[in-house]
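Q: Joint fold for the lines below.
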Amino acid sequence: MNPLDGDELCLDVLGTSIGVPGQLADEFEGLARSLQPPVDRVTFLDPGLALADLTLRAITHSPLLCIHAGVVSSSSGVIAIPGASGLGKTTLSAVLVQAGYGYLSDESLALDRGTGHARPFARPLALNADVWPILGSDLAQVVSSPPAGTERLVPAARLGRIDAVGGPVAHILLAQRQPGPVRIEPAPRGDAVQALLSKSFNHYRAPESSFRLVVAVVRQAQVWRVSYAEAPELAAALADVVGQPSPVGRADVASQSRIAAK
Amino acid sequence: MTSPQLPGVPGAPDPSASPAGPVITAIPAPPRPADYVVAEELDDDICLYRSDTDEVLVLNRSAADVWRFVDGQLPMAAIVAAIAQVYGLEPVAVQPDVENVLADLAARGYLVDGLVPHPNR
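A: Joint structure:
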């Protein structure tokens, strides 16, 4: 725990430093501690509100280009799944992490403006009670399901590995949920440019350089149009396309989990 | 996303669909990209970004070929001739398509009249 400002945690989030009430240490265990003084502070104590507040404040101050997306990593690199709220990014991210993919974020593809590499934002996943049956008994043994209709913050380390390094974006999935079998087809790279830029949180600060950065990132990635009905089905089908879920040599902090089962 | 395309390419607009006939806007002066447009090559395509409206437009290969000749120096006839040479066709065969692409881009605000002085020059 960072001793700055009493019990306040100082977290390194999206390349900036945000203060968080110390009572939330367990919920935010997956986020790295910052040695810098906070540039802003979360004021909520409710975990769900605090997570939303943390994300908003971090994006506001972040030097990174932040794009609304779920982000995991495989043996071939970083996989970005851009999408607005409602796509099911958090559930899909949770399922993919359970399947062995490294977790970077369920909320933001955070691109370094210099290198174009994706950087982790391993915030806890706000999972609704409906998701527990999908995630199986392993999760239920360590984190109890919240009451119906509510959600609970689950540190990613409870689900699998956190990719604390990130790297080049190798795959971009333009995903949509619809009934039927999983479909994964190559898509034009141009489609990904619009998808990423239209879901950016903060490109307005430097629109032209952000556009060039997005094109540069897309240029080196494979783009796929994906449709799926249920996240576990997509996770099962994805390995053949984007690489095996267990990369070699990536940081694995799952074993550092200090949280007791709730 | 909308993608201006030459006829013959899937998704190409059908000029004959308009009761008024082909939408061809005369561009008397050499056209040039608008000052707020940023262009980036992406495979065979070109991605255009309008910083004033935050819009992205992806030109397919054939439309991108036209765009590459838009420099504020070449008049319409020279662009038509250049495209004809690229595709190994007679100018008359490509002229309507080139005009349509340029007219479409002009209507969308990506091209302006090259004779209009650049505000920063």
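Q: Anything notable?
A: Chain A touches chain B through 16 residues (CB under 8 Å). The first helix of chain A runs from residue 47 to 61.
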